[in-house]
UniProtKB/TrEMBL annotation, chains A, B:
A Pfam cross-reference name: LacI
Record-given protein name: LacI family transcriptional regulator
Keyword terms: DNA-binding, Transcription, Transcription regulation
The HTH lacI-type domain, residue ranges: 4-58
Domain of life: Bacteria
Organism ancestry: Bacteria, Bacillati, Bacillota, Bacilli, Bacillales
GO molecular function ontology, one term from the record: transcription cis-regulatory region binding
PANTHER family according to UniProt: LACI-RELATED TRANSCRIPTIONAL REPRESSOR, TRANSCRIPTION REGULATOR, MEMBER OF GALR FAMILY
Alphabetical list of InterPro entries matching this protein: HTH_LacI, LacI/GalR-like_sensor, Lambda_DNA-bd_dom_sf, Peripla_BP_I
Length: 339, 339
DNA sequence: CTGAAAGCGCTTACAG
DNA sequence: CTGAAAGCGCTTACAG
């Protein structure tokens, strides 16, 4: 592939390389006639400035890194979509990394090599030891969705409150045998949700039975298996709270396969209010935020951090937005006890 | 942010910059003792080579561009996930672009600036005028999912056949009043599916009524509105074929809102066999490919093209894989005529 | 308003 | 096995 450089443009336009560069960066500083000639040469040669060379000297790449949970979880698909679009609209490219690609340490090493201007992370564990490395990298970072215990800049939801709202909703419907299905609790969102659930259950003096609680790896097989196990005990739960909608929808799949009716036989609910939860065939009760995309808000503030970088001191960014409960058909009055 | 360069490493290790570079690129060519010292210095300084500088001289970036349809369509979420992971595993970074970000011309301009090693495109229109520019860019390109009329390297499904299989399935169930809901027909997949549908209907001498066919912009509102319109005519269809599962699931949402039962009142089916289609609450009949991810196959071959680049002539990559029909509960015997 | 020159951080012949 | 030097394509003071 032949690379057209600014030197080639300069030759054709009959000027110096510096002038070509100026036309690109501060066109008002070059004489209109000359500018026109350069523009024509650029067009004629289909010249595109080499970003690598530019960022080498400019010390900025106009690129941000997004480290996201898997797109198989709709929550991350939605936020990734929004972030990439938002960044693009504001002149930034997004390099997307998924947690499945390797340890955060390896990913950070790569990111550092690319000299991105900023980092968005939605999938760091609550006590992930790599936190320090990110914080010390000198690259502006914002955590969204999942937080780290140390704090830092973050945009998240009040997940404790969210879980309390959801749990009270189920108690209000008369449920007492409530099960809890969750992914690993070393993740802030899942941990906080569990905490909120437990707190309300304790307040209400409703015991949380051990056989009703399952912490699992979030894949369809595990959900299938544990849902089955949950419902095949002597006294099965009348309601299931899932750590997020993705899990809830998978569990719902299992419940329906078993011939159970929702909510007649068992109620189910989740968190995040992903798009599918509102579908008529799903109608999953969920708690999330309406009209507030954490990813986009995080991107917006990341750009502020990047641009204010050399200026005055950095503001501290800590958003904990209020959740909303969306009651749908998947939760109903507790089935009359009759086991 | 302080940038540690290979010069700093050289100073600490007491050697030249070239040696540092050699340790990184061809460690076997430097004396073990010296190599060890350099490695220690790299570790001590937390040195990460600057990718921009490297690609400037190496004339390759180990980066591919993926231009994808929106992640709001699960098909694209699934393929993006796979591609990024596959590329990562093989030493390539992926820059993700979405068609919504601007014209393909603008996106190509950006991509050229980044000097990516290869391009994967899943969202080009059948007669998109930018095709030439991509083909002439000198950058290896593979089209997957949607094809361009000119061909080029592509990985796709036999969509005509897919539509024929699906249509015959509905005819076999006794349906004669079959509606067709599709996104724009300037997209190969949608165009070919429509073609296959029409061909089978003609063969079977079943007229395709004009009021049963709607071409729409694929957003929830449009689907909602047209589904409503479809079912509120004097003789509503007994089955609806949708151009893809995303549309079908949205239309299903509308049907259920209207109080219709699937498939008792109306059957519905789609294409792509996305993950959600298999969910017990959805059970959408669909035609797609099992165990064959076009995105991943495309990525695999793109890397072959990139690596064979300077070698012998390029092979022509043209995959048209066979579809499979997944019959689920959303299609059933045609309702007894009684309008 | 414009050009020559230095330099960003790297790799790769070229000598030795 | 190793270092000095040239060069990748750009931007940005510095003179004029």
């Amino acid at each position: 592939m032949i690379i057209v450089s600014s030197k080639d443009v300069a030759k054709l336009a009959g000027c110096s390389q510096s002038t070509v560069s100026r036309v690109l960066n501060r066109p008002e500083t070059v004489h209109p006639d000359k500018r026109e000639k350069v523009l024509q040469a650029i067009e004629a040669l289909q010249y595109k400035p080499n970003i690598a060379a530019r960022s080498l000297v400019a010390k900025r790449t106009n690129t941000i890194a997004l480290i996201s949970g898997t797109l198989r979880n709709d929550y991350f698909a939605e936020s990734t979509d929004r972030i990439v679009e938002y960044a693009s609209k504001h002149g930034y490219r997004t390099m997307v990394y998924f947690e499945s690609e390797g340890s955060l340490g390896d990913i950070l090493a790569q990111i550092k090599s690319y000299k991105v201007d900023g980092i968005l992370i939605s999938c760091m564990k609550l006590d992930d030891p790599h936190y320090e490395a990110f914080a010390a990298s000198g690259i502006p970072c914002i955590w969204f969705n999942r937080r780290h215990r140390r704090g830092g800049h973050y945009v998240s939801m009040d997940n404790v409150l969210a879980a309390k709202m959801l749990t009270r909703h189920l108690l209000d419907l008369g449920h007492r045998r409530i099960a809890y299905l969750s992914g690993p609790l070393d993740i802030s969102t899942l941990y906080e949700r569990w905490t909120g659930f437990e707190a309300v259950m304790r307040e209400a003096s409703v015991p949380v039975r051990e056989s009703y609680v399952h912490i699992l790896e979030p894949n369809d097989q595990a959900v299938q298996k544990l849902t089955w196990k949950l419902m095949h005990q002597p006294e099965p739960p009348t309601a299931i709270v899932c750590g997020n909608d993705e899990l809830a929808i998978a569990s719902m799949d299992a419940l329906l396969s078993m011939g159970l009716r929702i909510p007649a036989d068992v109620s189910i609910a989740g968190f995040d209010d992903i798009r599918m939860s509102g579908h008529q065939a799903i109608q999953l009760t969920s708690v999330g935020q309406h009209r507030f995309d954490m990813g986009e808000v995080a991107a917006e503030h990341l750009m502020m951090l990047i641009e204010a970088k050399d200026g005055q001191e950095q503001p501290s960014i800590q958003f904990l937005c209020k959740p909303e409960l969306f009651v749908r058909r998947s939760t109903g009055v507790a089935r009359t006890e009759k086991n």
